[in-house]
Amino acid sequence: MARLLHSLRRVFGLSTSSTTTTASAAGSLRTRSIDTDFSIFREGDRAVLHQKQPQLTKPLKRGDKTHLRRGHVAHDNIIGSRVWDAASLTGPDVRLSLPTLEEYVALTPRLVTPVWAYDHEPRPPAQLLTPDRSIRMMET
């Protein structure tokens, strides 16, 4: 995900460094301004660990690790490996892949605050009522 955002920043010119060179009349090679190699995991990427229940890692960082039900996976073992390689860990091996948008949304933990019946008021507060007793919408 970090590589994708970095690539988009460079494409739209939001980055201070530009590695794109123009081709000369002799037809010299043009370097790419974006990284299109998504077959290797790099630092800052997220990976899906496929086991009985798939799990999304934190952004990969050297020296860090992701805890699983049966052990953990060191991020150093993931960084530099290819997509669909098996990662060695303390426990059974797992397969690595890049997350699809659906997997990213489904596997990302959320902080949810439930609203219980006793949390809401049976009628709107007085400051929201207009003189004709209709509810006034307040923007934040």
From TrEMBL:
Domain of life: Eukaryota
Protein name: Uncharacterized protein
Highest classification ranks of the organism: Eukaryota, Fungi, Dikarya, Ascomycota, Pezizomycotina
